[in-house]
Design a protein that fits this description.
The structure is a single chain. 80% of the residues lie in helices and 3% in strands. By secondary structure, it is mainly alpha-helical. It starts with a strand and ends with a helix.
Length: 138
């Protein structure tokens, strides 16, 4: 079942803010929260992530029904990619080296910002690339 295309973009806006504040403050706890949000989005899909829940309950009723839908698989894959970077960030900030945590968090922030500001989901594009490459090799 397709999802409201505005939901993942809303999640990207929140993620951008959370990761920016994480980098500014150096809060490992905030990065841990974002890691959990990515994990829930990767396992259950973006509609079941914390930001998806907020979108469904608080935002969508105020902006009306969706006019554009998208398949749930690419955003879910993007959440898994975000999860990978967040886990690497947590490892870097807790076990070292510090620069690894900062770099991984910065990469996740850059990808979230691309989606939030321009509607370009880097993880979704990676998903489509992998699918096309897999079809060609079969």
């Amino acid at each position: 079942m397709d999802i409201d295309a505005r939901g993942p973009r809303f999640g990207a806006v929140v993620t951008t803010v959370v990761l920016a504040v994480t980098l500014i403050t150096g809060s490992v706890w905030l990065l841990a929260w974002q890691t959990l949000a990515f994990a829930l989005g990767a396992v259950g899909g973006v509609a079941r992530s914390p930001y998806g829940w907020v979108f469904k309950k608080a935002v969508r009723p105020r902006i009306g029904p969706p006019t554009e839908f998208e398949a749930p698989e690419p955003p879910r894959f993007a959440q898994a990619v975000g999860l990978l970077f967040a886990v690497v960030g947590l490892i870097g900030w807790t076990a070292g080296p510090q620069w690894l945590g900062t770099a991984a968090t910065g990469c996740a922030l850059a990808a979230a910002f691309l989606n939030a500001a321009f509607g370009y989901c880097l993880g979704c594009e990676m998903y489509l690339f992998v699918r096309r490459a897999r079809v060609r090799t079969e």
